[in-house]
Amino acid sequence: MRPHIEDYALIGDHQTAALVGRDGSIDWLCLPRFDSPACFAALLGGEENGHWRIAPKTAEGPETAEGPEGAAEHRTTRAYRPGSLVLDTEWETPDGSVRVTDFMPQRDRAPDVVRIVEGLSGRVTLRGTLRLRFDYGSVVPWMRRADGHRVAVAGPDSAWLRSEPDVHTWGEDFGTHSEFTVEAGETVAFVLTWHPSHEKRPPLIDPHESLRHSLEDWQAWADRCRYEGPHREAVLRSLLTLKALIFAPTGGIVAAPTSSLPEEIGGVRNWDYRYCWLRDSTLTLGALLSAGYLDEAEAWRDWLLRAAAGDPADLQIMYGLAGERRLPEQELDWLSGYRDSRPVRTGNDAAHQLQLDVYGEVVDSLALARREGLKAQPHAWRLQLALLDFLEETWREPDEGLWEVRGPRRHFVHSKVMVWVAADRTVRAMEEDPELPGDIERLRKMRDAVHREVCERGYDAERGTFTQYYGSSELDAALLLLPRVGFLPPDDPRVLGTVDAVRDELTYKGFLRRYSADETVVDGLPGQEGAFLVCSFWLADALHMTGRKKEARELFERLVALRNDVGLLAEEYDPVAGRQLGNFPQAFSHIGLVGTALTLFGTADEGGGG
Ligand SMILES: OC[C@H]1O[C@H](O[C@H]2O[C@H](CO)[C@@H](O)[C@H](O)[C@H]2O)[C@H](O)[C@@H](O)[C@@H]1O
Global pTM? Predict the structure, then answer.
């Protein structure tokens, strides 16, 4: 049985990331980029699909539902070093205590994973097991020794393992094994480096020096955080997590570093999130900007201008890390899935859906960037006008909406509201700067027409609430964003009615679903899912904005308490099992945490949608 999702911690180097379990096993790592094939895929199968475990020998044993047998004799504690993604895992064993420090240094050329073992007390024997399996756990590489390394080679990939001091390793059972002992004050550092297999040995790094640099770099970034309100540690951890999801070479932002962690254990709602959604990225950008991080915002804005270049009719709702357009969805049938949740997918067919909300989110984020003083780019305005031309032609069409339903297209109310946002922000920019080119009257007309239509066809006067789509009696948590984006004032009776209705009908044991659990006709998928965390944060925002401040704060506190021991949140939460669900850690959930902290305690930006 795999560990629970919340048993993992994240380490990363701004180009990819790994998940490290409480049991000392790295079970997920894609190299060299977030969206590359995984060389450790045990997360979505078993140890035979690749993992790297370093742990006290006495903590080993056949796995049980609660972790490795023998683990009961041990106490494990974990924590990130403050303001960083450097992870310390400490074991107390009957023989003494030991710490393993895991991190991925900022990259010069090749990606490295560094694991420094340090004896803290007594004399502890540890075991290492490395099973490299390229191409998502399917390829067993050839192993050889070279230049003081164990080298794994298969096809385009090679991985080089060494240790300081040198530790004896042996091959057995298609794995590389080691056993060594540390006393208090002694260290053994392991470095695993990925490299294209046709190139010469990768440059060596000094693991201890790299640790110092990593700590300095992360700390310098953390020091720039402007948020000083309550729960600062949680907010900063969320910001660090969002930073770790940015692919530094291009500025693209992934929705999560994993694929196919299920939204229902044993179910089919398993998707690949290692791509750059315009929606998730714009909301990430909003969170970073509101906490004072301008460089990342500028890099993303430039990424967007490159990705969106071309005919605006061809704008996709998501791209690859460098703006790649083809992300074909495939099933990896050799992987059994996390706790048997099949299929495991790579790629994402939602890339070609029509999701009208995305235009509003992009335009809103460009407006926010301008307000925050980002250097203007003339083609950013040209892009904005082109998007509006496209919307003028398309806004009356049904779409798949922000939840990327796999059922038929509908006239989703949230999508139309975000079309209104696109027109509204463009009109406002032109009013503020009459030099900006464009036909303001045409845009005003469109803005007002969308508003009118939504209020007529998207509002159920009998129940006093906006609905999920025109003519439906269903609700949708995205309706909570109406006051936040300025579509109607928070004290408008239609907003108050909607917030109450959404809270009453979509609450699921203290948290919020994104829509009703019976709505498989709309989303086109079998099975159920958990409470959707970003929606629960949106409810806290809406309660606060509509004057229910105590209720808002209580919900926020409950949400903060769901973070795992190192402050991470998946996409969803199962309040019955008390477990996290879905891809992990997910940008959406951490955006929600930052946004709500700012709404409740700080100076949140009124214009943002997240
Ligand atoms: O619900 C089915 C859809 O689920 C995924 O979409 C979700 O994740 C996206 C990335 O975080 C997010 O932008 C979207 O709002 C979520 O619904 C999946 O990516 C889709 O392929 C799938 O149709």
Answer: 0.95
